[in-house]
Amino acid sequence: MPFTTTLPDTAGLAERATAALEACGAARLPDDGGAPGRARTPITGEELFRLDFGTAKTTEQAVTAADEAFRRVWRDTPAPVRGQLVRRLGELLREHKQDLADLVTIEAGKIRSEAAGEVQEMIDVCDFAVGLSRQLYGRTMPSERPGHRLMETWHPLGVVGVITAFNFPVAVWSWNTAIALVCGNTVVWKPSDTTPLTALACDALLRRAAADTGAPEGLHRVVLGGREVGEHLVDDPRVALVSATGSVAMGRAVGPRVSARLGRCLLELGGNNAAVVAPSADLDLVVRGSVFAAAGTAGQRCTSLRRLIVHEDVAEEVTERLAGAYRQLRERIGDPFDDGTLVGPLISERGHGAMQDALDRARAEGGTVVTGGGRVGEDAAPGAYYVEPALVRMPGQTPVVEEETFAPILYVMTYRTFEEAVELHNGVPQGLSSALFTRDQAEAERFVSAAGSDCGIVNVNIGTSGAEIGGAFGGEKETGGGRESGSDSWKAYMRRATNTVNYGGGLPLAQGVEFL
Ligand code: NAD
């Protein structure tokens, strides 16, 4: 099937990326003699620039700079003053929203409104963190001893190592960094090796914010590169917290390495998110909510909808209406810079291979592809991977459905009783995001109760993707258990001290113990 849009050429995209980088203040690509790297775009599948990636030595130097900035200045800077740095960062992000969004589209292939939405999320989390800088509350508890005060105080950890995935190249960095900085930590960031340019732009904006507010220059460092560079960061004992976002496989490698040195880890890993559709559901909401959650971002969100568990009474109608909506999407696949486009490219040939593999397995396990799944536009860009989102009817939750395939595949299954729906829903190893569409209040309450969804994010009458920053974000089981962003997630970036202060003159022992 041909594209309805024309793809931009790679030279034009490289020029646009250069302009955005320069506007953010990251005029020069690093050339410090590191390992050879490159920036590419999934829009054409071609290389944009060559640039230097980090090495063991540059990572070590970055941690040294961040550690010194922490010890010399940042940990003793009052939290509301630290907040001023993040407020300035938020201002710069507002000013450069379009530049960053352009880079997100160029490197991650997100359509314009989703790329702008990702930058908006950065601005929102900065606002949140500025408020938080005056609310890092500890408790005071009544002491059992006369003349004593018992209280908790919260202190920064030190250097936070942030490792991020390709699909939220800037938002996840900001969730971690804005909160870590107001908590008094410094940050070394290893972005995905597929999105180095967005990282350079963010780093440049934060350096500008630091210069404008008198914060130490070393408090943030970026180290570009792949897995090896991440491993150097993970193994460095000066990195007090490793906050790593990515696949379950990455978490399985990183978690034990950090634990082996008794460091702290915050893991945000893969999801395999489902929505349950009850017979009472408003099917207009179901269709709109499911299509965005399953096909938006070309199915490349950790919260993407991958499983639809539909009551058998409405399964035919839901599948038909979804198939109709999916057919309309076919006309809207292509250049993510085109305002008419809804589905941009997959990140890589590997992503496409994983999708085709999963579809083959689904067929072998008894599934039927209702619509989609094919590659489009290969004549326009042989190195790029655009696909029609796939809708697949499955006979049940077969092995392929239990895995996360990072591509736009929506598996549809049926259920009879609500208990069966919840069992299917929870019957996968991952536990990130979940949804129930219903008009039955009792069902809604059961779904959000302890006996309902076992995920970290549990929604009613909205899809699985598109979380707000005000809540804590993260998932259970193989998703890793970490929480980032809003609510009291800041506690993961601090250490708690319990203080007992004796102002009474005597020395009464706790629990009434007598000694000497
Ligand atoms: P990935 O696991 O391939 O890579 C993620 C990051 O980890 C990259 O920066 C990579 O270089 C680094 N890395 C990989 N192995 C490492 C190791 N052994 N040591 C140190 N660093 C290592 O993931 P991806 O393909 O970039 O992103 C897609 C995956 O991320 C999906 O599984 C998606 O669900 C998940 N994700 C989860 C969340 C969340 O908040 N739960 C958010 C976004 C993406």
UniProtKB/TrEMBL annotation:
Query: Where do the Aldehyde dehydrogenase domain residues begin and end?
Result: 40-496
Q: Subunit details for this protein?
A: Homotetramer.
Q: Which PROSITE patterns match?
A: ALDEHYDE_DEHYDR_GLU
SUPFAM superfamilies annotated for this entry? ALDH-like
Q: Which UniProt keywords apply?
A: NAD, Oxidoreductase
Q: What is its EC number?
A: 1.2.1.3
Q: Give the family per the record.
A: Belongs to the aldehyde dehydrogenase family.
List, from the UniProt record, the residues annotated as the active site of this protein.
Answer: 268
Keyword Flavoprotein assigned to the entry: answer is no
A Pfam match is Aldedh
* Gene3D superfamilies recorded: Aldehyde Dehydrogenase, Chain A, domain 1, Aldehyde Dehydrogenase, Chain A, domain 2
Q: What is this protein called?
A: aldehyde dehydrogenase (NAD(+))
Recorded source organism is: Nocardiopsis endophytica
